[in-house]
Amino acid sequence: MNTATTTxxxxxxELEETLGAIRIPACPAAVTEVMREADxxxxxxxxxxxxxxxxxxxxxxxxxxxxxxxFSSGSKVKSVxxxxxxxxxxxxxxxxxxxxxxxTAGDLPIDMMEKFWARASTLALAAGVLARKHVGVSPEAAxxxxxFQDAAIPVMMLNFPEYAAIYASAGDCGDHLIEQExxxxxxDHAVVGWLLARNWGLPARIASAIxxxxxxxxxxxxxxxxxxxxxxxxxxxxxxEHVITDFIxxxxxxxxxxxxxxxTFLGTSExxxxxxxxxxxxxxx
Length: 285
Fold this sequence. Notes:
single chain, mainly alpha, Hypothetical protein af1432, 66% helix, disordered N terminus
């Protein structure tokens, strides 16, 4: 959800209030193991494969992602080791975190969560594919960011019993949702997502992009606050979000100031959007 709304730098008092109101799930041991190995100067793919293979959910997602249009080179991956070799350390991080986050939301409404993660997965795939069309935008980082930009929404549901109803009523209107969050809970899923990303060891630029993906002033924020490579992740994901509305039933169109700013930032034309639709249609099969 990238619809713009009013945002300003969070104060220390507000951060402490958020931390006091929200219980951030602890990072699971398997994710910690993956991060520890991936952060080494020379990470061992065999070690990462062993960790991933120890979890059925991580194994299944790794193989599925490795065989997706974003990574597939024609030959089909059949083992976890092959999947890890193809995906590399950055994407294995994403696999570990994604599966762990889904597991933390086990007590939430199944239908709602299936729809939520299906949309997030589709958006991530689209962002990763479209990033290849933009010089200087990492497809792997775009995939990871798009997958987790709204990952704090299930965390909000776990903390506030009434949140699920508010989220359902907001639909795809991020502006309305984030206003309701601040009014009722004195925090929002962008800030909570930033805290979650930092606590779970996601790269700093991805955490920064999550923090500011609703900020209407993000294109003029100082580089030290929102680096240009993080801003590029927000922009390419918003373009992807616009494109995938053609392929998701009931999805609201992504448009307005935020979308126009993303097009300008990336130099995207209407002709490019038509090309992107064809690319995504093929990628989604």
